[in-house]
Amino acid sequence: MVLEGFSNLRRIAGMNKLILSGLGSIILFAPVLCWSQTVTGEIVELPGYSFKYSLETSARRSTIWQLWSDVENWKKFDTLLEYSYLDDDTSFVTGATGVLNAEGAPEVKFEIMNVIEPESFTVRLHLPLYQTIDQQRYFEVSDSGVATFSHEISFKGGLKSIMCFLLCGTYKKETQRVMERLKVLAEAQ
What we know:
Layout: H1 2-23, E1 43-46, E2 50-56, H2 61-69, E3 81-86, E4 97-102, E5 108-116, E6 120-127, E7 131-141, E8 147-156, H3 160-188
Antiparallel strand pairs: 1-2, 2-8, 3-4, 4-5, 5-6, 6-7, 7-8
């Protein structure tokens, strides 16, 4: 009976491996995370395979904008990133393209979209099978009148429901962790 249980586990693991290898690098940020950091905000589910996370901050907008627009140093607050850069020494403007690499994942090309300096921008990650993930970052004023910064994540493409199912839990945790680190870094400056 015990051997049969192990056999079933191996079969399930084999199926998962087949599924993951078939999807290849779609599993961009799906490593299992041992995460115990306390977060202060709340995930807000949005229509269309999207969610948003916002944090209040005492940091100046210009400080957060400087951190957001310094692509080569995104790894300072996104610890899963091994590197990120803009192509051909371009500046942080609408239409700029670049590459990022998360720990244990293949390189992913991205495009900077809708830059409204120093208020908001979107990073569109280009994944295999014509799938994309849009990461919109922007400032808001909270209900209490305090400045907040928000990250909104949207899964796009014909397989968005599958991508969301596979990645959403980990993506939500990582988004919270990244934003908490960004807040600490910005408020320390």
